[in-house]
Specification:
This protein has 515 residues and is an alpha+beta fold. 20% of the residues lie in helices and 24% in strands. It has a six-stranded antiparallel beta barrel with strand order 1-2-3-6-5-4. It has a six-stranded antiparallel barrel with strand order 7-8-9-12-11-10. β10 and β11 form a beta hairpin. It is elongated and about 175 Å long. Pfam families: PDZ_2, Trypsin_2.
């Protein structure tokens, strides 16, 4: 950059500073090709892109004088749609309030229009669009709206949204009458189907009965109940009720001795067997065994339902059982429980001076009450496993169930029933002693109180005062268990008997006799 000349004296021209040479650095060829001027262009802008900057005049090509770039001509369609109408060059864009709305659009008030063609400095003089006058002035439109009410809607227009011909309305009325008549006929037919208040009830019933799983209590009871009968014993003015189980198709019924003892001992006593369907039939006593509280009677029926006999030796504590009988004369009562214990020796006083009843019982908590005696105790398959016989109660007199019921095992009961049916009597193995428990509630054994002189025990050397603790393979813990342990064997069997005498244990062999 050159500096301005400084004053100097003559003769000092050689001391003046000269301008520095212009530094023109080399230009990169890549940058020059990207940002440099096109070939043939010397100025800052390309004059060829502006028609007015080329040779010629105005907008015509070839005029060298520069001029403004004007807007292109307005298309004829836009000019016709938005242009001023002929003779409306003086119409203003917007009138002030109070204009008369005349053809010329001039204002009658002193206030000047907001915009006019002369006063609007921003308006393009070449723009063809202009705002025409309104078709109806505000005052005239309000007066006409206030004084000219609209036409009222007719009923068809309200209902159908448009005018409807009278013929169509007549057809609709006929259709409505027909539909109403049809509905009335249907209602009359429905109302007259029944006979007023005494009509016949039509109840929808399910096609299938209630579903019950296999082995349900209801299914067991349905199979067992027809084979369990209710027994009514009448002897003079006295009588009793109990239950029995049909065990043979010839009409043999197994029951308890104490149920039919009056009929077996008294003349003129009657026994009636009542089946589940209400059929009543007479019965006769075939034989009884007071020592095990069992009896067999025969009922005069043909083709009775017989209960399937199971095996009591297969059951165990905890197995489910069902008791079926007639407690307190309520026929075919079903109760359910479990086996509480097996091999439970129980004893009870005999009927009318008979010997004590002693047997190896099945203990159950199924509800057993007076009248259940002689009924069936069945397992989960519905097979007979015991004959209900007695219960343990509290208090004096006849009591109800407290969850301690006892049944005679069917294995023992069927052996006795076969003997009664074939011979009319039963023989039990006997050891030939009278014994008592060592002490009440203890399990120390059975102490011998009396020995028959020529009985089986006397011949084997058993003495009074000996305490028997084992018979064969079975432990003896009290007097009742001594009896059932001996009866497990047959008459004439020789079994080892372990006893304690004067604190010394010894074993003797006893050949069992008959009672």
């Amino acid at each position: 950059m050159s500096q301005p000349p400084t004053p100097s004296h003559e003769g000092d021209e050689e001391q003046r500073l000269r301008p520095r040479p212009i530094a023109r650095p080399s230009v990169d060829s890549a940058a020059a090709s990207a940002f440099g001027r096109p070939r043939g262009v010397e100025g800052s802008f390309d004059a060829l892109s502006h028609p007015g900057s080329a040779t010629g005049n105005g907008n015509a090509p070839g005029n060298g004088a520069a001029g403004p770039v004007l807007a292109p001509p307005t298309p004829e369609s836009l000019a016709q749609a938005f242009g001023r109408p002929p003779g409306a060059d003086d119409v203003v864009l917007q009138r002030a309030d109070g204009t008369d709305g005349g053809e010329t659009g001039a204002a009658d008030t002193d206030e000047a229009p907001l915009w006019t063609s002369e006063a609007d400095p921003w308006r393009d003089p070449g723009a063809p669009a202009v705002l025409g006058r309104p078709a109806v002035t505000g005052s005239d439109a309000g007066a006409e709206a206030a004084t000219a009410p609209g036409a009222q809607l007719s009923l068809p227009e309200v209902l159908f949204g448009r005018r409807v011909k009278p013929a169509a309305l007549a057809i609709l009325a006929v259709i409505a009458v027909l539909l109403g008549g049809a509905g009335g006929l249907v209602g009359w037919a429905v109302a007259t189907t029944g006979d007023e208040l005494t009509g016949e009830l039509d109840v929808a019933e399910a096609d299938a009965a209630k579903e019950r799983p296999a082995g349900s209590i209801a299914g067991i009871a349905k199979r067992v109940a027809p084979a369990v009968v209710s027994l009514e014993v009448t002897s003079g003015r006295s009588g009793g009720v109990g239950s029995g189980v049909m065990i043979d198709s010839d009409g043999y019924v197994l029951t308890n001795h104490h149920v039919v003892s009056q009929a077996a001992e008294a003349d003129g006593a009657d026994i009636a067997a009542v089946f589940i369907d209400g059929t009543r039939a007479g019965a006769e006593v075939v034989g009884t065994d007071p020592k095990t509280d069992l009896a067999v009677i025969k009922v005069n029926v043909s083709d009775p339902v017989v209960l399937e006999v199971g095996k009591s030796s297969d059951i165990a504590p905890g197995d489910g059982v069902v008791a079926v009988g007639s407690p307190f004369g309520l026929e075919n009562t079903v109760t359910e429980g479990i086996v509480s214990a097996v091999g439970r020796p129980v004893t009870a006083p005999g009927e009318n001076g008979d010997a004590n009843v002693t047997y190896d019982a099945i203990q159950t908590d199924a509800a057993i009450n007076p009248g259940n005696s002689g009924g069936a105790l069945v397992d989960s398959r519905g097979a007979l496993v015991g004959i209900n016989s007695m219960i343990r109660t509290v208090g004096e007199g006849e009591g109800g169930s407290i969850g301690l019921g006892f049944a005679i095992p069917v294995d023992q009961a069927m052996r006795i029933a076969e003997d009664l049916i074939s011979d009319g009597e039963v023989q039990h193995a006997d050891i030939g002693v009278n014994a008592a428990s060592v002490s009440a509630g203890s399990s120390e054994g059975a102490q011998v109180q009396h020995v028959q002189g020529q009985g089986p025990a006397g011949k084997a050397g058993v003495q009074e005062g000996d305490v028997i603790t084992k018979v064969g393979e079975r432990q003896v813990r009290n007097a009742a268990e001594l009896t059932v342990a001996v009866r497990e064997h047959e008459v004439g069997d020789t079994v080892p008997v372990r006893l304690v005498r004067s604190g010394r244990a010894l074993t003797v062999d006893v050949t069992l006799g008959s009672d």
